[in-house]
Write a structure and sequence with these properties.
The complex is a heterodimer of chains A (509) and B (135).
Chain A lengths: L10 H19 L6 H8 L3 H28 L2 H21 L3 H28 L6 H29 L3 H20 L15 H19 L9 H23 L7 H4 L2 H27 L6 H6 L2 H17 L5 H19 L7 H28 L6 H29 L4 H30 L8 H5 L20 H24 L1
Helix pairs in contact in A: 1-5, 1-6, 1-7, 3-5, 3-8, 3-16, 4-5, 4-7, 5-16, 6-13, 6-15, 8-9, 8-16, 11-14, 11-15, 11-16, 11-17, 13-15, 14-15, 14-17, 15-16, 16-17
Chain B lengths: L2 H22 L2 H23 L6 H23 L6 H50 L1
Helix pairs in contact in B: 1-2, 1-4, 2-3, 2-4, 3-4
The chains are: A mainly alpha (509), B mainly alpha (135).
C-alpha cells in the first residue's frame, strides 16, 4: 500500500489520533455506574447481565493489549490500526443502536477490545517517531488521555443519567471513534511488520484470554452472588492463577511477547507495583463514592461533585510534562500513591458526611491518579531500551487494567455485604482502598530501598534511538546480593560510560 | 555497636515493653502499646533487612521480626481489648524471643570469629619461636 496520508509525520495529528482513540472507552468505562439502570431498561438486560457485559468488555480490554503486540509482530501495524479503529466505530454503533441485548453486548465488548489494541498500536509511535523534545507534551497528553478520561467519566455519566437517556452518550463515543478513524487515515503511513518470521506465542495468548475471561467473569458474578459462591470465587481464583502463569511463562519464554525478564530490575518492578495499586484503589474509590451518593441527590448534582477530580488529573498531567526531563518521575509516581491514600482517608466518611468531603477527596484523588499511573508507565519504559516500549505498555496495561477493573467489583461487594449499615460497609470499602494504596506505596518504596537506584536525569536523546536505557536501573534486590557498595557504583559508572559513548556516536552521526 | 546488635536489642526491649505493659496497664492502653510496638518491629525488621552485608541468618531473623510485628498489629486491631490481652502477651514474648535469638546468634558468631582470630594469632606467634628453636 503506497498511500501516505497528508498529515503523516505531523505531531499534532498523531496526538489527536491518540486522544480520539483512547478517551471514548476509558471515559465510558468510568461513567457507566449511574447509567446502569437506564441502560438495563433500554436494552432489556438485568443488572447481572449488564455487570457481566461490563466485565467481559474489561476482560477484552486487558486481552487486547497482548493481542495487539502479537499482531504488530506479524502484520503491518498501521494497517492493523485502521482495522482496530474501524471495528471500534462498528462496535460503538452497534452498542448505540442496540435493538437487541446481544447487539449491545457485542458492541460494548468490541469497544473494550479495540481500545487497548489502539493504545498499543498508536501510542508507542507517538513517543518514538517524533523528536524527544516533544516527550513532555506526549507525556501530558498520555496522562490526560488515560486518567483525564477516567476522571471525567463520573461527570459525564452523571450528566447523561440526569437527562434520562443513555444512547446519546454512545453516539458521541461512536462520533469520537469516527474522528479517530479520520485521523488514522490522514496520518497513515505504511510500516512493515516487526518480525514476520517470529513464532506465534499461542500459549501466552491463551493464558491471557482465559485468565482475563475467568477473572472478570468471577468478579461480575458478585453483583448477585456471595463472594465464596463457587460461580464467583472459582473463576476469580482460576483467572488470577492463569494470569500468574502468563507472567511466569513470559518470564521463562525464549521469545516472549512481553519482556518480563528484562523488567525484573528495581525501577520497573517498583513502578509496576505503583501502577497496579493506584489503578485498583483509584477506580474502586470512584465506584464507592458513586454508590454512596446514588440515593442522596440527582445524578446531575452528584456529577458536579466530581469536577475537582478532573481538574486534579489535568493539573498533574501538565505537571508531569514539566518534570519528565528531570530525575523525579519515579518519586512523582510515589507521591501519587500518598495522595490516593490521603484521598481515601478523607473519603472514609463520605457515606454519612457532607458533600464537601467528596469535593476535596475527589480533587486529591484526581491529583493522585494523574501523578501515579502515567509517570510509572514512562519510568518503566525508560528503564528498558526504546524498542521494547510497545511491549512494556502492553504488560503494564494488562496488569493495571486487570487490577483496576477486577478489584473494583470485589471491593464494591465488600461494601454492600459488610458493616451494620450501607454507610458502614462503604466506609469499610474505602479503608480497603486506603490499605491497597498505602501498601502499594510502601512496597514500592521498599523495593527501591532494596535496589538503591541512583536517581538520574533520563538520557532521552540516546534512549529514543534505542541505543541505551534512559537511566540505570540496578538488579532487583541488589542489596541482598551482599555485594560491595562499590560494585553498585561500578555498574552505574559502566552505564554512564556506555551512555557517553552512545551520545558521542549519536552526535557524530 | 553494630546495626545487628541495635536491631536485635531493640526487638528484645520492644517485646519486654509489651509484656510488662500487658500486666501494668488497662486493656485499652495495652492495645495501643501493641499497635506501636508492632509498627516499630516492622520498621526495625525491614530496616535491618535492607542493610548491606547482612548474614543470611540475620535476614531470616529480620523477616521473623517484621512478621511478628504484623501479627502484633493484627491482634491489637482485631480482638476486643480484653480478649486480645493474652495474644498481645504472646506477641510480646515472640518479639523478645526473636530479639534474644538474634543477640545469641550474633554473640556466638562473634565469639567463634574471635576464637579463630586468637588461634591464628597464636599460630603466628608460635611459628617464629619454633623456627628459632629448630635453627
Amino acid at each position: 500500500m503506497k498511500f501516505k496520508g497528508p498529515l503523516a509525520e505531523r505531531y499534532w495529528a498523531a496526538v489527536l489520533l491518540v486522544v480520539f482513540a483512547l478517551i471514548p472507552y476509558l471515559a465510558l468505562s468510568s461513567s457507566l455506574a449511574p447509567l446502569m439502570k437506564i441502560i438495563g431498561a433500554g436494552v432489556h438486560l438485568s443488572q447481572q447481565a449488564l455487570s457481566l457485559t461490563n466485565g467481559m468488555a474489561n476482560a477484552a480490554y486487558a486481552l487486547g493489549t497482548v493481542l495487539a503486540v502479537q499482531i504488530a509482530v506479524h502484520y503491518p501495524q498501521r494497517r492493523a490500526l485502521l482495522v482496530y479503529v474501524s471495528t471500534f466505530v462498528l462496535g460503538s454503533v452497534l452498542a448505540a443502536t442496540a435493538l437487541t441485548p446481544g447487539l449491545f453486548v457485542a458492541g460494548h465488548v468490541l469497544q473494550g477490545l479495540t481500545t487497548s489494541m489502539m493504545l498499543i498500536a498508536a501510542v508507542p509511535p507517538l513517543v518514538l517517531n517524533f523528536p524527544y523534545t516533544k516527550l513532555p507534551i506526549t507525556g501530558a497528553i498520555m496522562n490526560m488521555g488515560i486518567f483525564g478520561a477516567v476522571a471525567a467519566g463520573p461527570v459525564i455519566g452523571g450528566v447523561q443519567a440526569g437527562s434520562g437517556a443513555w444512547r446519546p452518550l454512545f453516539w458521541i463515543v461512536a462520533g469520537v471513534g469516527g474522528l479517530a478513524l479520520v485521523m488514522s487515515l490522514l496520518t497513515y503511513e505504511d510500516v512493515p511488520a516487526q518480525e514476520p518470521q517470529a513464532p506465534r506465542d499461542w500459549l501466552g495468548i491463551f493464558l491471557a484470554g482465559s485468565g482475563c475471561g475467568a477473572a472478570f467473569f468471577g468478579a461480575s458474578q458478585l453483583t448477585t452472588h456471595r463472594f465464596l459462591d463457587l460461580i464467583a470465587f472459582g473463576p476469580l481464583v482460576l483467572g488470577a492463577c492463569l494470569l500468574f502463569c502468563l507472567v511466569l511463562q513470559q518470564y521463562l519464554a525464549k521469545n516472549p511477547l512481553m519482556p518480563v525478564r528484562k523488567l525484573t530490575t528495581t525501577i520497573p518492578v517498583a513502578m509496576i507495583v505503583v501502577a497496579i495499586s493506584a489503578g485498583a484503589a483509584g477506580v474502586a474509590l470512584i465506584e464507592l463514592i458513586e454508590v454512596a451518593f446514588m440515593h442522596r441527590g440527582s445524578p446531575g448534582h452528584v456529577a458536579m461533585l466530581f469536577w475537582p477530580e478532573l481538574g486534579g488529573a489535568v493539573f498533574t498531567a501538565f505537571l508531569f510534562g514539566r518534570i519528565l526531563y528531570t530525575r523525579f518521575p519515579p518519586l512523582f509516581a510515589l507521591s501519587g500513591m500518598a495522595m490516593i491514600a490521603g484521598a481515601a482517608a478523607i473519603l472514609s466518611g463520605v457515606a454519612g458526611g457532607p458533600e464537601v468531603l467528596v469535593i476535596v477527596g475527589s480533587g486529591i484523588l484526581g491529583l493522585g491518579l494523574g501523578s501515579s499511573v502515567a509517570p510509572s508507565l514512562f519510568a518503566t519504559g525508560f528503564s528498558l531500551r526504546a524498542f521494547d516500549l510497545q511491549r512494556v505498555f502492553a504488560l503494564l496495561e494488562l496488569l493495571r487494567g486487570t487490577a483496576a477493573f477486577m478489584v473494583g467489583p470485589i471491593i464494591l461487594h465488600l461494601a454492600m455485604t459488610t458493616g451494620s449499615s450501607m454507610a458502614g460497609g462503604i466506609q469499610n470499602g474505602v479503608w480497603v482502598c486506603f490499605a491497597i494504596a498505602a501498601a502499594g506505596g510502601l512496597l514500592s518504596i521498599y523495593i527501591l530501598v532494596l535496589g538503591r537506584p541512583p536517581l538520574t536525569r533520563p538520557r532521552l536523546a540516546e534512549w529514543e534511538k534505542g541505543l541505551i536505557t534512559a537511566w540505570h536501573s540496578p538488579p532487583l534486590f541488589d542489596v541482598l546480593r551482599n555485594g560491595e557498595p562499590e560494585s553498585a557504583a561500578e555498574a552505574l559508572a559502566a552505564w554512564e560510560a556506555e551512555a557517553a559513548r552512545t551520545a558521542a556516536t549519536v552526535h557524530n552521526d | 555497636m553494630t546495626s545487628r546488635f541495635i536491631t536485635n536489642f531493640a526487638a528484645l526491649i520492644a517485646g519486654a515493653v509489651l509484656i510488662t505493659g500487658r500486666f501494668a496497664f488497662v486493656p485499652g492502653i495495652v492495645r495501643w502499646i501493641a499497635l506501636g510496638v508492632g509498627a516499630a518491629a516492622i520498621i526495625i525488621g525491614l530496616w535491618s533487612f535492607a542493610l548491606r552485608r547482612q548474614p543470611a541468618l540475620q535476614r531470616l531473623i529480620d523477616v521473623a521480626l517484621a512478621a511478628v510485628g504484623g501479627w502484633t498489629i493484627f491482634v491489637s486491631c482485631v480482638w476486643t481489648p480484653r480478649h486480645g490481652l493474652w495474644f498481645e502477651f504472646a506477641a510480646g514474648a515472640a518479639l523478645a524471643g526473636v530479639g534474644a535469638l538474634g543477640l545469641v546468634v550474633r554473640e556466638a558468631r562473634l565469639s567463634a570469629t574471635l576464637h579463630a582470630l586468637e588461634a591464628s594469632a597464636m599460630t603466628r606467634i608460635a611459628l617464629p619461636q619454633d623456627g628459632g628453636g629448630g635453627g
